[in-house]
């Protein structure tokens, strides 16, 4: 039971970009409660779609405006959705529309780096300083592999004085613009490594910004051009792009909301946002169809050859700050999640999760690319814990047989929550470590 809840906790936190700063203000739910297992939803039809629909409905009932999932399993892609995309009008979700892919961007960045390694343009064990001299202010050698696998010891994000310190700041800082070199400088200047490179595991958005800069240095092209030339163009991912300072979300699947000003305040629309701070690590736009197609191509060997894909899948355990195993393993920009804690017959699945204000994303796929699901919800960092848990279980249900449907244990709610790098108490004042 503890293993199941620990794995659920990491799905809600590991790749969550923004939650690292303001997460604990929203994670404090009613102690001792747990999300119920989704039950069959007659309106959704039979099989996994029914269970997915039940989980999404439970998430909406628990407090998010809307949630949807796009399922690909060899037949025509299917969409399951509950709730609304715009709270003021009650319009239905556009399941074929774009959303902010958040940390799922990391798998795209990792794929570009591995393609360049496959071509002999860099080595995975090359020190980053060989290619980007004077970028990182550390004497310890940090390799490309360290960055890809989150074993570099780099800080996770920008320091508190340059990032979100309170929930209201999510709205007031939405148009802050930073170039990649500035992000790396502000994130590392005067801050020690968290550990000696290669000796531990700790999630770092800064590391993937460095990797995106490495792609540009080696190709002498903008990251956007390289992404289109190597991935989105050949795969015809017409909804997918990386953005720097561009704040709009064209053809949005949904608006993105958070409750920033207290429990009785209306939701704040955070759809329009400048995410230049997450260049290479979390600034991409995509759709459910595109993400499923990308992971299908990646896992089938269309983007990397067999030996390089095998290296991408060489994982290390993901652990928290106390060294506790979080229930998943991390490769080179790719997560492996064993589903046995949720359903006895569940396979190990591959993918990534992501989190930004107003958008939570989880994309999971079987190792052969045959079955995949991408799930999205439109209230994320302030979503009630039961809503986030039900949404996560909805995605997992795509891989469970009817006799082994996903569910949670009765463990205390404190174990199903994010573990922020920068805690923030419930009064909204940012805490400092």
Summarize the structure in words.
The N terminus and C terminus are likely disordered. This protein is of the alpha+beta class and 433 residues long. The two termini are 31 Å apart. Helices cover 28% and strands 16% of the residues. The chain is globular. It has a nine-stranded antiparallel beta sheet with strand order 3-2-1-14-13-12-11-10-9, with helices on both faces. α4 packs across α8.
CATH superfamily membership: DD-peptidase/beta-lactamase superfamily
Number of strands: 14
Helix percent band: 25-40%
How many separate domains make up the residues? 1
CATH architecture title: 3-Layer(aba) Sandwich
Show unreliable segments. 1-46, 408-433
Q: Give the CA-based shape.
A: globular
Strand order of the largest sheet: 3-2-1-14-13-12-11-10-9
Count, helices? 12
Query: What is the averaged pLDDT score?
Result: 84
Percent strand: 15-25%
Radius of gyration: 20 Å
The main sheet comes to: 9 strands, antiparallel
CATH class descriptor: Alpha Beta
Provide the fold topology.
Layout: H1 2-11, H2 19-27, H3 48-62, E1 66-72, E2 78-86, E3 91-92, E4 98-100, H4 105-118, H5 144-149, H6 169-172, H7 180-188, H8 205-219, H9 223-232, E5 241-242, E6 257-258, E7 268-269, E8 284-287, H10 288-299, H11 306-312, E9 316-319, E10 325-330, E11 335-338, E12 348-356, E13 359-366, E14 372-377, H12 385-396
Antiparallel strand pairs: 1-2, 1-14, 2-3, 4-8, 5-8, 6-7, 9-10, 10-11, 11-12, 12-13, 13-14
Helix pairs in contact: 3-12, 4-8, 7-8
């Amino acid at each position: 039971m503890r293993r199941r809840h620990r794995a659920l906790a990491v799905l809600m936190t590991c790749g969550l970009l923004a939650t690292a700063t303001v997460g604990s203000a929203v994670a404090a739910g009613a102690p001792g409660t747990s999300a119920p297992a989704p039950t069959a939803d007659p309106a959704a039809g039979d099989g996994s779609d029914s269970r997915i629909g039940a989980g999404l409905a439970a998430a909406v009932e628990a407090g998010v405006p809307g949630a949807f999932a796009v399922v690909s399993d060899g037949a025509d892609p299917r969409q399951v959705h509950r709730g609304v995309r715009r709270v003021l009008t009650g319009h239905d979700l556009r399941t074929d529309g774009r959303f902010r892919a958040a940390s799922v961007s990391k798998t795209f960045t990792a794929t570009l780096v591995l393609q360049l390694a496959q071509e002999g343009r860099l080595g995975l064990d090359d020190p980053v300083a060989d290619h980007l001299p004077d970028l990182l202010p550390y004497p310890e050698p940090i390799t490309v592999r360290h960055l890809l696998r989150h074993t570099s010891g780099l800080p996770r994000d920008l320091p508190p004085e340059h990032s979100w310190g309170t929930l209201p700041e999510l709205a007031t800082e939405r148009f802050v613009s930073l170039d990649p070199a500035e992000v790396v400088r502000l994130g590392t200047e005067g801050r020690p490594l968290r550990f000696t490179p290669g000796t531990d595991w700790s999630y770092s958005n800064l590391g993937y910004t460095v990797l995106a800069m490495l792609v540009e240095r080696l190709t002498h092209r903008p990251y956007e051009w390289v992404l289109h030339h190597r991935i989105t163009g050949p795969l015809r991912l017409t909804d997918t792009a990386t953005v720097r300072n561009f704040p709009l979300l064209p053809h949005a699947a949904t608006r993105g909301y958070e409750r920033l000003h207290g429990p009785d305040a209306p939701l704040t629309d955070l759809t329009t946002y400048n995410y230049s701070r997450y260049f290479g690590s979390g600034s991409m736009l995509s759709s459910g169809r595109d993400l499923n197609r990308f992971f299908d191509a990646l896992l089938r060997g269309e983007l990397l050859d067999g030996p390089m894909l095998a290296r991408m899948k060489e994982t290390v355990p993901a652990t928290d700050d106390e060294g506790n195993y979080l229930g998943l393993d991390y490769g080179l920009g790719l997560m492996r999640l064993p589903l046995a804690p949720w359903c006895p017959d569940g396979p190990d699945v591959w993918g990534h999760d992501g989190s930004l204000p107003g958008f939570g994303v989880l994309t999971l796929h079987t190792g052969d690319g045959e079955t995949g699901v991408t799930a999205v919800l439109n209230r994320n960092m302030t979503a009630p814990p039961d809503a986030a848990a039900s949404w996560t279980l909805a995605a997992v249900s795509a891989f469970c047989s009817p006799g082994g449907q996903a569910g949670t244990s009765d463990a205390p709610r404190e174990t199903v929550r994010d573990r922020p790098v920068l805690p923030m108490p419930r009064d909204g004042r940012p805490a400092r470590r």
